[in-house]
Design a protein that fits this description.
By secondary structure, the chain is an all-alpha fold. The chain has helices at residues 3-26, 35-38, 49-62, 77-87, 111-123, 128-168, 172-186, 188-197, 204-219, 235-246, 249-256, 263-277. Among the domains are: 3-62, no CATH class; 78-146, no CATH class; 233-281.
């Protein structure tokens, strides 16, 4: 075979291949379809017959599956209720079942509150599983609130005790006992519960008022058992009495004169008052 003949055949083969490629590239698989199908928007994204086959197989797998149609914005209530029912919402709010496990310890939810939770869950279209999560979240919120209140009350009690100890000094235990005695005398457990409920049982003003009442009861000759009682004084009370004694000529005389018959008693009284007036010393 001559060189010219070989070259001619190669040229023809090349032109034939280019023509085939060009035809393949310009041919749209939809060209063989009727016009009404060719222009259907659902086929616009399908590039070739292979893609069409994949889409068809996927669609066949969905046939018979349990499908849920989302209601439109203006859908009737019956359609919305049917949608919620398919998602697992019970027929009515009282059909929800509230969990008893994995709840915060010590939290009790009233039946009335359970009813309200059920109404909200049903109105929102929640399933039983979703409503149970809502119930647990509500219980945890109650537990967190109770813990916060307990922490606040404990902090207030500590601060109140520190304040009263500083003010009363050595008379603290005595005055607390007097306050408790007054509460017991005038109201008993009912009054104590009322004060606790209002967060006032440890309030310094209330405790000081109860202590004064208790002291008045104990100092009264009739109520107190027919005899006077002596009490420890707060630093302020002791300091005030020391100031008064300093202006008492007779006491000053007894205190400063060793041979005075009341010298020992005056020294003892002054020392006791000084210890109460300045407990830190």
């Amino acid at each position: 075979m001559s060189e010219e003949s070989t070259t001619a055949e190669a040229t023809e083969t090349s032109e034939s291949t280019e023509s085939t490629v060009s035809t393949t590239e310009t041919t749209d698989w939809r060209d063989s379809l009727p016009d009404d199908l060719k222009a259907d928007p659902s086929l616009a994204s399908i590039k070739d017959v292979q893609g069409l086959a994949k889409g068809y197989v996927h669609a066949q797998k969905l046939v018979g599956a349990d499908k849920v149609v989302i209601p439109g914005r203006d859908a009737p209530q019956e359609e919305i209720d049917a949608f919620y029912a398919k998602l697992g919402r019970p027929e009515s709010a009282d059909k929800y079942e509230w969990p008893t496990e994995n709840l915060p310890e010590g939290v009790e939810i009233a039946d009335a509150d359970k009813g309200k939770i059920g109404e909200i869950a049903h109105d929102l279209g929640l399933s039983k599983t979703q409503a149970a999560k809502l119930y647990r979240a509500y219980a945890q919120q109650i537990a967190d609130g109770q813990a916060s209140i307990s922490s606040t009350i404990e902090q207030q009690r500590t601060e109140a005790e520190q304040s009263l100890r500083k003010e009363w000094g050595k008379a603290f235990d005595q005055n607390i006992a007097l306050a408790q005695s007054a509460v017991k005398e005038f109201g008993g457990d009912e009054l104590l519960q009322a004060l606790d409920g209002a967060g006032l049982s440890n309030h310094p003003a209330v405790v000081k008022a109860m202590a004064k009442i208790g002291r008045a009861i104990s100092e009264d000759e009739v109520i107190g058992g027919g005899k006077k009682q002596s009490f420890d004084k707060s630093p302020a009370e002791a300091q005030a009495e020391l100031a008064n004694l300093g202006m008492d000529a007779e006491f000053t005389k007894a205190l400063t004169q060793d041979n005075h018959p009341g010298h020992a008693a005056a020294v003892k009284r002054r020392q006791a008052l000084y210890e109460q007036a300045y407990p830190e010393n």
